[in-house]
Known about the structure:
Elements: H1 3-28, H2 35-42, H3 46-52, H4 57-60, H5 64-76, H6 84-97, H7 108-115, H8 118-142, H9 151-175, H10 180-196, H11 199-202
Helix pairs in contact: 1-2, 2-3, 5-8, 6-10, 7-9, 8-9, 9-10
Amino acid sequence: MPAGLRELKKQQTRQAISDTATRLFLERGFEAVTIAEIAAAAQVAKMTVTNYFPRKEDLALDYHETFTAALARTVASRADGESALAALRREFLAAVERHDPAIGFTGRDFARMIADSPGLTARLRELHDQREDALARTLAAETSAAPGDLTPRAAAALLTAAHRTLFQHAMDLALEGRSDQEIAAALTRSARQVFGLLDASLADYAVRGERS
Length: 212
């Protein structure tokens, strides 16, 4: 089989396993479903499931790699003259417009699944922490920060905290049964408020084309 077809087959298998797992989790709850049951329902070997998803939590949070890299990627690709804060605010508002699941447009059932699962809640905290680490590394590189300079780490903590706050806000609204349109309107208002709190300290930090 050509390499391209093999890669496509792997992607299809991975997606099928994830979709099957999510369906079972929503039906019965995350903690109640076993890897063996997922494998049987997806018609693959148990080892196939664990090869694609070493952690059970990542069967439900299948976007984890994109999630953890998103903020760093946005900052690294910001426009000339644009600060890290401005780039992240712009991209967040764009994600609101497209109802992106990565910022909390998950639907009530999925939000309830996460809220009811200690394992998924803990894993989500880990993903937020990993996202902060990735952003701190990117900010350090983008500003040519000296070794031991805590500015990139502090800035990453503030910027990631804004995203954590808004993500939880979106999840809370989903749990209330709000529609995507209602969540989008609320998040747009909240994003302007939350990011606005950082303007005084970070509006001129990590501006593309300048060095701190």
